[in-house]
From TrEMBL:
SUPFAM superfamilies: Sigma3 and sigma4 domains of RNA polymerase sigma factors. This is Sigma factor-like helix-turn-helix DNA-binding protein. Residues 51-87 form the RNA polymerase sigma-70 region domain. Pfam families: Sigma70_r4.
């Protein structure tokens, strides 16, 4: 993995290869018809015109596609005269049964499937030896439109290859608007149904829409998608294949499979784009909880970032929670340090001590919590460890709760019962055993804690002496000196043995 400043740059996962191959732009379909003898048909049409000037006029009107005014200016006649000549020639074509039969056979055959790609390469004319195959094709199509008085569509899609549709092509703007609003690839059958066209003809028809892109898997996308729209469309294909989360540098490279222009875009541009909440399209995504990783908002918890997710957990709980409990309730993977950093840094959270946090404005409500809510808060504050019942009752009395009512819940005993939050499991242990457990927990984190109560120290030191744990006794004695605290008198002989 290389680094670009503060941004990581990951290579494309090998597992994505099949998905990305499916969204690469597909090659145009092969022409469905070839008309190498098109020049003979043009010559047959021109042979029916006796007047040489009219023959040139008809060619100029239907070949290069001159307007009535342009054709009149070229031959020194009015546009009305041009129109009259065109109408007369059209009647001549219609009245010639043999030519009409040939034209019918050509265009009816082409239009049978709704649309077709026509290859006219190699066509040449005796009357117009300088004419290109494209001009010959244009002449025949325009002439047939004039004879039939019906609009057809002919669009160049390659060298001497034309898309022919025997009617008006569906408006590209409708398709562009639909694909831009969805920002998703569409299946051929779905798009054909929406356009009310035969599915089999859609691949050829799409050649007439420059902004619509057909990919290798048969789906259709938009070549003018914005950067967030391309990322959403590609991410949806990855999610369908089981790759729901991705790093911004990975999705950046993946988008280049569909739009090669994005291959030169630095990964940091994708990171910056995903981090701009003011862009409407970025609502498609949400942070996945890990550095630089994102996912589709529709597949996540609906929160754009970790801060919103943590805020939602506390709002739903309506009570203070330990940061571990907050992390457990999140519907996303968030690192320990990230959770603590957000809770400690953001002013909308307040710390109640011992790793417990609440939303701003909840502090005054703590003393009015029901007993059940207080107990949950209490044991979460305890770090999910065992607590003596007398400690619980003391804290309950400080909150103004009735001690008898707490005891009536049946979860505590003043002498022996301890309860662990999250398991609903009551265990009987002696006070001595509970104190030994508390000492062990304190000793494991001794660098960050004050000295524990005398009873806890005595129980822990006794166990250390019995187990001949000289280092435990020695370090405890040294810590007591640093804190200016006194060890229990009963432990003096044990610590003396450890120090010597």
């Amino acid at each position: 993995m290389s680094k670009l400043g503060a941004y990581a740059d990951f290579p494309l996962p090998e597992e994505w290869a099949e998905v990305l191959e499916g969204i690469r732009p597909a090659s145009p379909p092969s022409p469905g018809r070839a008309l190498p003898s098109l020049g003979h048909l043009v010559d047959a049409c021109l042979d029916l015109i006796d007047d040489e000037r009219n023959r040139h006029l008809i060619w100029g009107r239907f070949g290069p596609g001159l307007t009535l005014q342009a054709a009149g200016d070229e031959f020194g006649i009015t546009r009305e005269r041009v129109r009259q000549v065109v109408n007369k020639v059209s009647r001549t074509f219609v009245r010639n049964p043999q030519l009409k039969l040939v034209l019918d056979s050509v265009f009816m055959g082409l239009g049978r499937d709704g649309c077709v790609l026509v290859d006219v390469s190699g066509a040449c004319s005796g009357h117009r030896p300088d004419a290109t195959p494209a001009h010959l094709w244009t002449f025949v199509v325009n002439l047939w439109e004039e004879v039939q008085k019906r609009k057809m569509t002919s669009l160049p899609v390659g060298p001497d290859v034309f898309l022919f549709v025997p009617e008006a092509l569906p408006d590209e703007r409708r398709i562009v608007r639909l694909l831009a609003e969805r920002a998703s690839f569409m299946e051929e059958a779905q798009l054909a149904r929406w356009l009310d066209v035969p599915p089999g003809a859609l691949a050829a028809m799409a050649c007439g829409w420059p902004r619509v892109v057909r990919v290798c898997s048969g789906l259709y996308g938009l070549g003018t998608w914005t950067l967030p729209q391309v990322m959403k469309a590609v991410a949806e294909q990855l999610a369908e294949a089981g790759f729901a989360e991705w790093h911004f540098s990975e999705i950046g490279k993946a988008t280049a499979a569909f739009d090669a222009r994005l291959s030169q875009t630095p990964p940091r541009n994708f990171a910056a784009a995903l981090s701009r909440p003011d862009v409407r399209e970025l609502r498609y995504f949400e942070h996945a909880g890990r550095d630089g990783c994102w996912r589709l908002g529709a597949l996540g918890d609906g929160h754009a970032n970790n801060l919103e997710a943590i805020r939602a957990v506390l709002a739903a709980a309506q009570m203070p929670l330990h940061w571990r409990e907050i992390q457990r309730r999140l519907s996303r993977q968030v690192y320990d340090g990230t959770v603590m950093a957000l809770l400690s840094r953001e002013t909308e959270f307040i710390s109640l001590g011992r790793g417990v946090f609440a939303l701003e404005g909840c502090r005054d409500d703590v003393s009015h919590q029901p007993i059940e809510a207080f107990m949950q808060e209490l044991f979460v504050q305890g770090g999910q460890d065992w607590l003596p019942a007398d400690v619980v009752l003391t804290l309950a009395q400080q909150r103004g709760l009735d001690a008898a009512e707490v005891l009536s819940l049946g979860r505590f005993s003043l002498q022996f019962r301890y309860w662990k939050w999250g398991t609903a499991e009551a265990l009987f242990v002696t006070v001595e055993e509970a104190n030994r457990r508390l000492f062990r927990r304190w000793f494991a984190q001794r660098d960050r804690r004050a000295m524990p109560p005398q009873a806890v120290l005595l129980a822990g030191l006794r166990q250390a002496f019995i187990a001949q744990e000289r280092e435990v006794l020695k370090e405890t004695a040294l810590l007591a000196q640093e804190h200016g605290a006194a060890l229990p008198q009963e432990a003096a002989d044990w610590t003396h043995w450890a120090m010597n």
